[in-house]
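Lecture 7 notes: from sequence to structure.
We start with the chain below.
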Amino acid sequence: MKRLLCICIFLGYAFVLGQTESAQDSPPIAAVQFSGSGITDLETQVLFNRFLEELTKASDNSLMDQENINEKITGLEIVTTGCISDECLQAGLGALGVQQLLAGSISFKKNKYRVKVRKLDAAKPKPKKYSFRYKGEPDGFITELEVLAWEIMGKEPPERLTGKRKPNQESMIEKIVENPMFGKAVVLAAAGVAGSSYLKHSGGAKTSKDAANSMKNYKPGYDAHMESADKAQSKANLSLAAAIGALAYGYFTGVFSDDN
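Predicted structure tokens for the same chain:
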């Protein structure tokens, strides 16, 4: 009986130990290959590799190898479409079984590099967002990408990187125009002006109609006020359409999206 009890205890201990070792063997961080736009697949791969190299140096924990990542998330939107929405990140995190998941994109347009990276922690419902734009030579951009890897890991980038940073050649006007808040401000201002015009002209239309109703027995006066009311109402309708159009433009172009 004692022998049987010892065997059961031993097997139970071995099972728990095996589970613990299995959990410890699983790398806590995974970085999914970035999607690319405006650059070739080879360029995207090279840039991601430079980022991944610095991420590995900056991280206190091991990173899941890329082959293992690709095997587990094949077919998910985070791979097939480069999706980095909250839902896509959650799906990737679940498939990989890691504590942290990084995904992002690199694009080149209008003579500028643009980077977006999302880091989702298993203990948090929303990912942390990182992004930057860079106008300049490719080597200057690569340095900024490497610096970003350290910042994402909450570390100060080493002097070997900060010492070779090159100024971003983006002008002040470009920075203002490309700021997401600027786009929101322009759309909201346009919608606000149109909305104000709608209220003004709809109020004018009502005033003219009231005046016309008070002059029903005097046809020339009644007709004149009704004509004025119709014109004011037409302007009000156009203003309302402009306000709705401005807001719709902002919505469909992603101006109001927080994915910036």
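Points to note: The chain has two domains: 27-170, 181-252. The domain at 27-170 is CATH 3.40.50.10070 (Rossmann fold).
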